[in-house]
C-alpha cells in the first residue's frame, strides 16, 4: 500500500534577497535573485571563503523568521519557526543537509556530503548558478502573507542573509 504525500496548500514567490559581510577580505557573499522567466526567479552568485572554518571553532549561525499579513514593516511578528544559534557544523549536519543541500547540489559547487560536513571547509569561491529553491521539505501549510527570513553568521566574520518571500493560498 502506498501513500501519497500531502500536497502544499500554497504557492510562494521570492521577493528579495540581501547579503552582507562585516569583512569581505575574509568572507565575501553576493547572492542575488535573477529573473529566469516571467514567473520564475532563481538564485545566482557566490560565497567566497578566504579563511579556515573548522569544526569546533567559534563560527555559529542562526535563522529567525518573521511574518506579516500585509507586508507593512510595522506588521511583522516573530514566528516560532527558527534555527537556534548553533555551531556552523551542527547546522551543516542537520538543517543544511536536510533542507538545503539537495536543492543546490545540481546548480552550485557548495558543500555536498554523504554523512558529515568536511572540516575545514575548503577556502575557495563557491558559485551558485540559477538555483531554484526545492520546496520538497517545506511545510505543507503556511499562512498567506510575507515571510522575512534572516540568517546570521557569527565568529571571525559576521554575515547576514535576508530573504523575503510572499506566500499565497492555492485555489
The mean pLDDT is 90
Helix content: under 10%
Radius of gyration: 17 Å
User: How many E-type strands?
Assistant: 8
Widest β-sheet, arrangement of strands: 1-8-7-4-5
CATH architectural grouping: Distorted Sandwich
CATH class: Mainly Beta
- Helical segment tally? 1
Report, as a whole number of angstroms, the end-to-end distance.
Answer: 29 Å
Q: What low-confidence regions span 5 or more consecutive residues with pLDDT below 50? A: none
Count up the domains. Answer: 1
Shape: globular
Order of helices and strands: EEEEEHEEE
Estimated structural class: mainly beta
Pfam families: DUF1091
What does this molecule look like?
- It is a single chain.
- Helices cover 10% and strands 46% of the residues.
- It contains one helix and eight strands, in the order βββββαβββ.
- The protein has one helix at 88-104, and strands spanning 10-21, 27-35, 41-49, 60-68, 77-87, 124-131, 145-154, 159-169.
- The protein has a five-stranded antiparallel beta sheet with strand order 1-8-7-4-5, with helices on one face. It has a three-stranded antiparallel beta sheet with strand order 2-3-6, with no helix packed on it.
Amino acid at each position: 500500500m502506498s501513500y501519497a504525500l500531502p500536497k502544499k496548500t500554497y504557492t510562494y514567490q521570492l521577493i528579495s534577497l540581501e547579503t552582507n559581510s562585516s569583512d569581505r577580505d575574509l568572507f565575501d557573499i553576493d547572492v542575488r535573485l535573477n529573473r529566469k522567466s516571467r514567473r520564475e526567479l532563481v538564485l545566482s552568485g557566490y560565497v567566497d571563503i578566504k579563511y579556515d572554518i573548522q569544526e569546533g571553532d567559534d563560527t555559529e549561525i542562526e535563522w529567525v523568521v518573521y511574518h506579516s499579513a500585509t507586508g507593512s514593516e510595522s506588521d511583522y511578528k516573530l514566528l516560532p519557526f527558527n534555527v537556534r544559534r548553533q555551531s556552523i557544523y551542527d547546522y551543516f549536519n542537520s538543517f543544511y543537509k536536510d533542507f538545503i543541500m539537495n536543492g543546490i547540489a545540481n546548480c552550485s559547487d557548495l558543500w555536498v556530503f554523504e554523512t558529515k560536513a568536511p572540516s575545514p571547509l575548503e577556502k575557495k569561491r563557491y558559485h551558485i548558478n540559477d538555483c531554484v529553491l526545492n520546496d520538497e521539505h517545506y511545510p505543507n501549510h503556511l499562512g498567506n502573507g510575507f515571510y522575512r527570513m534572516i540568517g546570521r553568521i557569527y565568529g571571525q566574520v559576521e554575515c547576514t542573509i535576508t530573504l523575503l518571500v510572499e506566500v499565497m493560498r492555492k485555489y
